[in-house]
Design goal:
Largest sheet of chain A: none
CATH architecture of the largest domain in chain A: Orthogonal Bundle
Helix content of chain A: over 70%
Oligomer: homodimer
CATH superfamily of the largest domain in chain A: Tetracycline Repressor, domain 2
Largest interface: A-B, 56 and 55 residues
Structural class of chain A: mainly alpha
Shape of chain A: elongated
Number of domains of chain A: 2
CATH topology of the largest domain in chain A: Tetracycline Repressor, domain 2
Distance between the termini of chain A: 60 Å
Chain lengths: 205, 205
């Protein structure tokens, strides 16, 4: 028996309650953290009847997994939309990086939700990033084959590096409360310089 | 009145109790997380008398801040030792990256401790990385001046990128339970290729 299942609402009233629970969960997991948040806290914050939570979610883990999954989908959809008209992998990395940073700039809870999995269950954390890396490798490989990306570099390492750059340059922007879209464009440009030619002068030929 | 002060032990017996508390705190903050861990949990895990905790720490936040500070010092000391005999910034980045990954490979709690600050107090999280970035910028600048690092790239962005690479290539190794020092050397080499020349072929000259 799976105790972490979710059941999507079938009525408009149900959708409203479902959304309230999602919103409350995001707020509370983001603020106090998963381990410190009880189902009662969520019910109380969402202002739904006590039994309503269980109509949709088996447990607070079920709600957390739903939120993490939703976030993963959002990030991927945002990246897909942003890169739709790109002709080269260079353009795709650039547009994807900007889209990621703009997303976390609007919703810094994104970091909390993913990194919180370290405390919810390290297996979830590992799966989140290993799945993301696998997907990244598959997206990069055709560009090694068509000659845009060098063929003498390990794509798994490149995938983790690209995830690291997105996440940390994202933090650079999130830390600056006054950051504008121009600032995002700036750090994206600087990141692309590095991806393009590295940072060292004398080693470049 | 500062409620987050710590007082170091002055006797050998005191040092023993202090170490027990440190060890218990690290274990519990790392497992359940800061918010779910009470001082009683720590006292009980450390097997010290109830009042002993307060001889050294004003609060559980004081203990957390001590652990975070200790970790920050360890990481910097490890990097300093590893890079002591390096003649170029290239060699320093390479040795520093390896030292960081070897450190988190031995002690994956390192990630938890730092990222947990998002839930303890986002200000601590922000300060941890902004301080680290400032220090990184200061260490990079002389190598822009001596011509080893290109002078047409923003050093703040480079600092966040380098932190991102360390953290995520570190995860790549931590996720692989069978990873050896050879595997660490491999991902370090691949990362240095990227820092050296980027990932794109056609944009390289």
């Amino acid at each position: 028996m799976n105790k972490h299942e979710i059941r999507l609402p079938k009525t408009k009233v149900g959708q409203k309650s479902f959304k309230k629970i999602i919103k409350a969960g995001k707020l509370l997991y983001g603020k106090a953290g998963y381990n410190s948040t009880s189902i009662n806290d969520i019910i109380s914050k969402a202002k739904v009847a006590a039994g309503t939570f269980y109509i949709y979610f088996d447990s607070k883990l079920a709600l957390y997994l739903y939120l993490l999954d939703e976030y993963g989908h959002n990030i991927r959809r945002t990246a897909t939309e942003a890169t739709r008209n790109c002709l080269t992998r260079y353009e795709m990395e650039k547009a994807g990086l900007k889209a990621f940073i703009m997303y976390v700039k609007e919703d810094p809870l994104a970091y909390k939700l993913v990194w919180e999995s370290l405390f919810v269950d390290p297996v979830i954390f590992k799966e989140y990033y290993t799945n993301f890396a696998s997907s990244y490798i598959n997206h990069l490989r055709p560009y090694v084959e068509n000659g845009e990306i060098r063929d003498d570099i390990d794509l798994e390492t490149v995938s983790y590096i690209l995830m690291g750059i997105s996440n940390f340059v994202g933090l650079q922007i999130v830390f600056n409360e006054k950051a504008t879209e121009n600032d995002v464009d700036f750090v994206v440009e600087e990141s692309m310089k590095l991806l393009n030619e590295g940072i060292f002068k004398k080693h470049r030929t």
